[in-house]
Amino acid sequence: MPSRPIITNNIRHLRFISDEMSQITLASKVGVTRQTIATIEKSKYYPTLELAFLIARVFDKEISEVFQFEFKD
User: Fold this and answer.
1) Which partner for 65 in 19, 34, 61, 73 could form a disulfide, CB atoms 3.0-4.6 Å apart?
2) Tell me: the pLDDT tens digits for 56-73?
3) What per-residue string of b and e applies to 7-33 under the rule 16 or more CB within 10 Å gives b?
4) Among 45, 57, 56, CA closest to 7
C-alpha cells in the first residue's frame, strides 16, 4: 500500500504578508470557521480540494504556492 503524502502549507506566512490577515478574516472569505483555518495551518487537517483552491484564490496564488506535499517512502 502506498504511503500517504505529507501536506504542508504557507497559509500563516501568506496571512502575515497580506496585511496580517486574521484567521477569522480568511475563514469568512472561504466560508469556514476560524478553527478550520487554524487546524489546516497546523497540518492537523487537510482541506478539501475545493477549499484549497478557495484559499489560494484569496491570496492570488497558485495552489502549489500555498500547499506542498511529499511522499515518505
Assistant:
1) 61
2) 999 999 999 999 998 876
3) eebbbeebbeeeeebebeebbeebebe
4) 45
